[in-house]
Design goal:
Helix content: 25-40%
Shape: globular
Radius of gyration: 21 Å
CATH class of the largest domain: Alpha Beta
Largest sheet: 8 strands, parallel
Number of domains: 2
Distance between the termini: 43 Å
Structural class: alpha/beta
């Protein structure tokens, strides 16, 4: 594997050289110190003067094949929107999912993301697409039986077979997970079954939770006044393996339960506000309770893009606004939500630029108007710049994008146009 030397790159407030080899950050030293380093194999040296290195972003909740479903179901209330999406999804197949995932990878790479936590049908095609693009993907079988007993049994067989096949494959770029869609679309038996299987395999379990007020009210009506969090607690589902997307409508007791069980919660502000699901994500309360808080975009059918940098800005602005507190969600914590917190949830040694860590980085070109002011780099990146300032992206020690060029982009877009016929 070719080693990479990033010369004269800004890291924090200092200019450094960064040596990358065998997928990890091997050494960080003063500019020019590369002459003293012993380098094995080929060396790819890149002049990074004027660039700032940040950890590769981690999108902790999305549905990557929805990149070809933008604009479907606009200006609709959540229940009607969801029905519309499910109708469209009846026409999908592996070919559609493969090319749509590749489109999502293009977009995420361009906006600085190196790892994404996905949930969708035909997930093996998404794994293939992401790995060919060089990205790290966390995904697995998505259970959704809608109370149909026959469908439950069919999905159990498929879930076990596919999960064990991917676990045995041992691809370090694929984090094998399980998923069930939500408490309203999955029978109680299947919720428990999926949770127990995730426990058996010791892998993450990815779900939607407390996304809408209607979900909470319906759960309380159906389960003796229990909130969705309390209901899952009763079923024994809450655990450090659980990756709970949205967690928007929570009570103080819900927060206590999530914290006590080590559940990781994922904020998806653009999707929540666009679908009018809500905006008062209880960041401070959950943070203070010790919950690991991450950031996601959701799918393009609801958020319309996969730009995690944009999601960072929107998340911070809404926190400041509804709390009437400009100090809410400080920039360092915001960056952690988009990097190291996601790495912690997925149990990968990434999300930081330190010697020994996995080499996932994005290089920000500061030679533009957004970074001319003496303000802090992170403030200018989040509140002023756009993602086209991302010059290059490295994942697992390999360039995915270099000077804004991604190999195979034209072919991917052309093939994606062809599979659109399946839903048009």
């Amino acid at each position: 594997m070719t080693s990479i030397l990033l010369r004269d790159v800004t890291l924090g407030d200092e200019r450094k050289d960064i040596l990358i080899g065998q997928g990890r950050i091997r050494r960080i030293g003063p500019v020019g110190s590369c002459a003293d380093w012993e380098l094995a194999g080929d060396l790819d040296s890149m002049d990074c003067s004027g660039m700032v290195a940040i950890p590769g972003l981690i999108n902790m909740h999305t549905h990557s094949p929805m990149s070809l479903m933008r604009g479907i179901g606009e200006d609709m209330l959540f229940p009607a929107w969801l029905d519309k999406i499910w109708q469209v999804e009846e026409h999908l197949d592996h070919d559609f999912v493969y090319w749509a995932t590749k489109v999502s990878c293009l977009e995420m790479i361009r906006t600085g993301t190196t790892t994404f936590n996905d949930q969708y049908w035909f997930f093996d095609s998404s794994v293939q697409a992401a790995r060919e693009m060089g990205m790290r993907i966390a995904t697995g079988y998505d259970v959704m039986d809608k109370g149909n007993r026959g469908e439950s049994e069919r999905q159990k067989e498929q879930c076990i077979a596919k999960s064990e096949a991917f676990l045995h494959a041992g691809d370090p770029g694929h984090i094998c997970t399980l998923a069930f869609h939500a408490i309203y679309s999955v029978s109680e038996e299947m919720i428990v079954w999926t949770s127990e299987l995730a426990r058996k395999y010791d892998i993450p379990l990815h779900i939607h939770l407390c996304e809408t007020l209607g979900e909470v009210e319906n759960c309380k009506a159906a389960h003796g006044g229990l909130t969705p969090v309390e209901y899952l607690d009763r079923l024994g589902v809450l655990s450090p393996r659980l990756l709970a997307a949205h967690t928007l409508w929570l009570t103080p007791h819900d927060i206590e339960l999530l914290a006590a069980h080590g559940v990781h919660c994922i904020h998806n502000i653009n999707s929540n506000t666009k679908l009018a699901s809500g905006y008062r994500f209880l960041y401070n309360e959950m943070r203070d309770a010790g919950i690991n808080l991450c950031l996601g975009t959701d799918g393009c059918a609801s958020s319309n893009n996969l730009d995690l940098l944009e999601a960072m800005k929107t998340a911070a602005l809404f926190q400041k606004s509804w709390r009437e507190d400009p100090s809410a969600l400080p920039l360092p914590e915001l960056l952690d939500m988009a990097t190291r917190n996601g790495a912690r949830a997925l149990r990968i040694d990434a999300g930081r630029i330190e010697e020994g860590a996995v080499a996932d980085l994005a290089l920000v070109d500061t030679d533009n108007t957004f970074f001319l002011s003496p303000g802090p780099f992170l403030a200018n990146l989040v509140y002023s710049a756009h993602s086209d300032c991302i010059d290059s992206v490295i994942c697992d020690g390999k360039f995915l994008m270099r000077h804004r060029e991604i190999p195979g982009e034209r072919e991917i877009i052309a093939e994606a146009r062809k599979v659109l016929a399946k839903i048009s």
